[in-house]
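User: Okay, second chain of the day. Same drill as before: sequence in, structure tokens out.
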Amino acid sequence: MKPGGMSSSRLPAEWEPHRATHLAWPANSRDWPGKFASARWAFVEFARHLAEVEQVRIVVTGALAEQAARRMLEQAHVNLSAVVFHQFPLDRGWMRDISPCFVVDGKGRLCCRRFRFNGWAKYDNHKRDARWASEIAGRLRLPLTDVKHKGGTVTLEGGALDGNGRGSLLTTEECLLDQHCQPRNPGFGKGDYEACFKKYLGVTNLIWLNEGILGDDTHGHVDDVCRFVNPTTVVCCREKNRRSRNYAALEENIERLQGARLENGGGIACVPLPLPSPLYFRKTLLPASYANFYIANGTVLVPTFNDSNDRIALGVLSELFPDRRVVGIHAVDLVWGFGTLHCLSHEEPAASR
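Assistant: Same drill. Structure tokens below.
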């Protein structure tokens, strides 16, 4: 067995205790053309709420970026005693996708699993982001293992997966099985993913949904469409407008969940989560979704979009997380970068080391 205890690994659920949340200070203005300044302030508000409940690790490109970040965080009264800065140059910094998967081994120790990052099989500016997984594992002094299958490192992003901490994992066929549009691992089938997820993440039950939502430039990340909220319950986006191009795909996802089973053979409770009205900037449809929420220690932070469904989504999630404070974070500017709260963040579980 390799270092890190692969055979007994477990991928913790996001609602389990965190040691920290990892963020990257927005540095690439091309991610938010025309909205870069306002997107930064939305990011600051996100960080403010996180720093109230846990440590926040923020990656900055260098000393000048750290100074600028500190000034803005101070102006927003962020608890800087809870913030740790890491200086490292990144291309873009969507932490959900470029970070390693943190798993717990059979002795309760935290370990890292690294997938290859290739810019969502779409963007060329990803080489520095691709180095982040090994960089943070080294800084945290955690063992790092590459996820390998068929003789090579498996390409994948964190937003393509969502687990319940008990061995079940959600994903979409659109993202993982695509062979033409944005292929991650050409030639891979369901069995290939099931084998490597079992070996490296301790996943015994892979639940395959159909597609993600329109406007998602990742081509089907599950964290914009369906999420576990406890070991037996998911929220899944539903579109009521039958004329919407999202309608049929999301209905199929719900039908699949109704027939799916958990790792113990039990059924899955599926709670519908609305979508906001279609959100455009210029002529581009944006992937606005309440499913891109982030579960932190004692709180759930939910993207909101100045939409009448904001209140409904916050109410649904408040009922599902009765022991946590559910807070909306204005994300109309953030989503112009084609992602919001969950895409920007990654949890570091609070495992014994």
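The longest strand covers residues 18-24.

User: Thanks, on to the next one.
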